[in-house]
Inverse folding.
């Protein structure tokens, strides 16, 4: 309950920001540039594998093929991404369940659009740790990116799946890979939730890690099967006013998703990851091998509902699939 209250407070703050931003932009009609291309402001995370399909769609000219030119608007947080979309400063944006679904639950007219990104999280401990099983985490300190965020929710789900009381551990905010590493080295935390890119980065610095569970290798149980980490979003108003633009965006992203899934593109994809993440060729290869099949161009209603319940609470029916997920993109 405390976690949900903390998160809802963040959502309320984000929605307040959105109300302020609404005066600065309009999401009703897409503009056209001098070349006749539709201009689309897209909210994005920079230097993050979560939006890799967007990177590839731009690099491969897939948006231009659909008559679209994108203006990337980078944000510092997922809450900011959702707020700027609602406020009209962007027309499409990557979203995370914790913010988008909560905003939908608060009555915001948002629509989820493909591609849908599989949850990429592992619960890891230092290689020399005596901890070898999730059950041994009872009473321990677990690192999460930030309190009340999806990484904490993931940890809670994994603990519960393994018979450990989620309230019986201490959650410690450790940030991303750069600040996560010293928290592990110093013993500030016994374990931490980390994405593939963070694990690869930390290992490259000489700190061995072992995964107790990992969504990318099937060891995370049910949450690894159905969990979503990202999807793309627009507003009902923009979709209704610009259906062809939304379809064009979605088609370009679907082509990018298929390009990434095809391992024949590994070398080119690695070069893109090197540039995106500022990592070595070797590390880019490790990341590619883990994540390149992480995105899907569709989602079933059952999977959507499971993510709603994981995010908003068991039994939640306030964000129905039919009203909030675009299924027309192929």
């Amino acid at each position: 309950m405390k976690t949900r209250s903390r998160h809802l407070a963040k959502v309320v703050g984000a929605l307040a920001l959105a109300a302020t931003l609404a005066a600065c932009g309009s999401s009703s009609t897409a503009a056209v540039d001098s070349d006749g291309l539709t201009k689309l402001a897209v909210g994005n995370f920079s230097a993050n594998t979560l939006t890799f399909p967007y990177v590839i769609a731009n690099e491969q000219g897939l948006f231009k093929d659909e008559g679209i030119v994108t203006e990337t608007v980078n944000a510092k947080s997922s809450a900011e991404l959702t707020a700027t979309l609602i406020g009209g400063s962007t027309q499409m944006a990557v979203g995370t369940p914790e913010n988008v679904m909560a905003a939908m639950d608060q009555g915001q007219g948002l629509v989820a659009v493909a591609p849908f990104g599989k949850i990429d999280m592992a619960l890891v401990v230092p290689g020399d740790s005596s901890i070898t099983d999730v059950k041994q985490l009872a009473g321990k300190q677990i690192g999460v990116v930030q309190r009340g965020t999806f990484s904490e929710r993931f940890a809670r789900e994994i603990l519960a799946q393994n018979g450990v009381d989620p309230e019986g551990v201490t959650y410690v905010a450790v940030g991303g890979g750069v600040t996560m590493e010293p928290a592990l080295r110093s013993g500030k935390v016994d374990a931490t939730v980390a994405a593939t890119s963070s694990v690869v980065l930390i290992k490259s610095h000489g700190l061995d890690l072992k995964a107790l569970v990992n969504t990318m290798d099937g060891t995370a149980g049910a949450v690894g099967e159905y969990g979503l980490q990202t999807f793309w979003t627009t507003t009902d108003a923009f979709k209704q006013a610009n259906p062809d633009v939304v379809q064009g965006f979605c088609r370009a992203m679907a082509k990018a998703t298929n390009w990434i899934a095809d391992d024949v593109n590994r070398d080119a994809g690695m070069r893109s990851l090197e540039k995106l993440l500022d990592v070595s060729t070797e590390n880019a290869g490790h990341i590619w091998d883990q994540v390149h099949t992480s995105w899907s161009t569709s989602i079933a209603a059952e999977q959507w509902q499971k993510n709603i319940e994981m995010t908003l609470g068991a039994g939640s029916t306030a964000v129905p699939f039919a009203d909030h997920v675009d299924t027309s993109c192929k």
User: Anything to note?
Assistant: Residues 1-14, 16-27 have pLDDT under 50 and may be disordered. The first strand starts at residue 31 and ends at 32. The chain is about 45% helix and 20% strand.
